[in-house]
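Lab notebook, bench 4. The sequencing result for the construct came back, and we need a structural model before the next group meeting so we can plan mutations. Quick request posted to the team channel:

Model the 3D structure of this chain.
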Amino acid sequence: MECSYNHILIIDDDRINSLLNRQFVSFCLPKVMVNSFQDATLVLQYLKEGKIAVPDLILLDINMPEMDGWEFLTQLKTLSIKPDVIMLSSSLHFADIEKSTHYDAVKCYIEKPLTEEKIEHFISQKRYEPFGLDRHF
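Done. Here's the predicted structure in token form:
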């Protein structure tokens, strides 16, 4: 599968989810550099200090300790970088989906788990319209 992103960063506090998603994205998109972190605060610090490469795309969980996805997005706006962001969450609360539309960086909101079909649709093809959510609102 081809992809126009060169560097994808996954931020998810669940270590197993983070590892599995990193491996799965790497398997589906072998030409893309994929990194993962469990701590959003650390990611911001590393980006500010130039300790990690600036990603083209961030797959961001919402519910995390220390700093949740919303606070991360607010802090990200203060940096001079503008990666695309896809919210990757197990939360299908309408309020979360609605809130994500208020951030320019957020291209779409998809439900966990990450699948090959979702990678193809949202990441490879950049088709950001809603895609087969399991529940209706």
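The first strand starts at residue 7 and ends at 11.
Will bring this to the meeting.
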